[in-house]
Amino acid sequence: MLDRAATALRRARDGFRRAEQLYMILLAVALGVLGGFAAIGFRLLIQLVQSVAWRRGTYTLDYLAGLPFWWKIVAPAAGGLLVGLITYRFAREAKGHGVPEVMEAVALRGGRIRPRVVIAKMFASGVSIGSGGSVGREGPIVQIGSALGSTLGQWLKVDQRRLRTLVGCGAAAGIAATFNAPVAGALFAVEVILGDFGVAQFSPIVISSVSATVVSHYFLGDFPAFEVPEYSLVHASELFAYAGLGVLAGLAALSFIRSLYSAEDAFDRLKLSPPLKAAIGGALIGAIGIFAPHIFGVGYEAITEAVRGNMVWYFLALLVVLKILAVSITIGSGGSGGIFAPSLFIGAMLGGAVGTVVHNFWPTSTAGAGAYALVGMGALVASATHAPITAILIIFEMTGDYAIILPLMISCIIATLLSTRLQRASIYTLKLLRRGVDIHRGRAVNVLQNVPVSDVMRPRFVTLPPGDGLGAVITKFIDHPGSTLFVIDEAGQLEGVITADEIRPIMSDPAALAELIIAEDVMVEGKFPTVAPDGSLADVMRLLGVYRGEVPVLEDGRLVGVIWPQDVIERYNNEIFKRDMAGTMVAAAATEAAVEPLPTGGDTVLAEIPVPSAFVGQTIGELNIRRRFGASVLLVKQISMDGVERVNTAPTPDYEFRDGDTMLVLAAVDELPHLRTGVPADGR
After folding, report:
1. pTM score, whole prediction
2. Mind listing the domains of the chain with CATH numbers?
3. For a Cys-Cys bond, which of 209, 446, 478, 500 suits 436, CB 3.0-4.6 Å?
4. Predicted pLDDT of residue 284
């Protein structure tokens, strides 16, 4: 009886899933409601943190200006320390502005995001914003909503196409609930997150966006994000001024992008723990906030003042520079928060400054500074994110005035054309390109990106103490096949390197200099590259473009291995071979029931193996298949819930095996039995 009932329920569930349109609509509504409540909860969390950090749940600029200077430094520094601990201990994805991580998950992992990101991102960003970090809440709520959509889809075991759509639904819900802008929320999801305007994807996203807006209206009221004055286009010639604003916005966006990633590089070079870096960043933000509290937090009050035309042009221009600096420090040091609201802030200040100057020169034929501040907001967002449609619609929804559309379109399009001409990547995609990921092609552009340094480093190397004489140095060069010697102290810490270039000038008369020169005299200090064992081999490949010797591998300052250039090149050739082999086998793997082991040379074979039960629920990276089994997973065949077979070529280390998966592997013949059982030869 119970078996028949369970069978009937499964059939009903499967039939419901086959009615895809109704199924996705209901899921979209559910995600819209969840996203709306998440946005509300996130706001309340920020207010709670503000009440602790600033003794006010909602504060004003005048209140901040009246606080003691030390308070403005301590509060952001303490918040930064806590944020660093959260991201370092619980979820590294919660660091930064969040949207690139969602885009990467959609492009490379089929929309799979770890569920813990929901909690980690909410608390990390809530603390960062509430304690004064100069970031916005839109990016975090996009990542939170997307993670909710991904978690729901993974729990329901939907296929990748639906999972990507659910991620887009979560992102749209977050933006819609935050800005009270359902159309802009939907457009942001399809233009930025998915990059797909197909009807099958767009319909659920719109429904989710509307559902989130309904929830937001019910609990927060039907109010725009900013208090916007009435707008009018005074004279047609004013469009030239808006065109000029578009040019300035494009240049300002490029400065913002480059400042942001330069700050990340600068903090990455600091040999400090991530929480300490974030605390230092918070203290620097506080130091700026002593003189300009406008840069603290989201900055909506300052934007409202600019839109109302209540600030002088030179102070507005100063705030453009200070906000770019503050956001760069916050995110670069390890803070958590979005760049959407900061882009609006920078655009509002830039537009307000331009509008003030223009209106002073031509008061009868131009609108006030507030109109230019509004258009500047859209132009800066459009040029920074390369999403002009979203920027135009979000400003239009905030104003509700059609008269602003023409100036807005002119500025946004000119700004976007200029920024894309000068730099191909947006503020979101540049972060991915720096990791070797091109989401426009949906794959890693560098085949070594996911290969750790430890896989190819040599644990044996030649060292000498700094006091060794020239004769010992030359002898070791003769006996050692490499071109680099490593000078270490008694504790094993690397002090410098000696390459053939340092020795060659004194080789003309070594006998005369043997008693005068020691290793310390000819070694190079601090001007050579180093990498960590868990670093990417792609980074080493880039270093070899300017450095020809062996690259030292350091762990806590101690030399643990070296990377030889020829080893990197050999591994690169192997990875290219495996990727090409995977590409040629896709058709066969997608249609054949099984692929018999095919010899590829030596004792290596290409074989198709059902994923053992021991692998299910774990990722390729967690299983460490490459090291434990000496095998490479070239592709994975998946059976979706609707019975459709799909091929995932070149799966990333984050791919999590499911029951029923089949993998195409390149492995040694004697490893195949161990792969089939999921137990390596050594039993570990």
Report:
1. 0.66
2. 12-220 (1.10.3080.10), 245-444 (1.10.3080.10), 453-563 (3.10.580.10), 577-677 (3.30.70.1450)
3. 446
4. 92
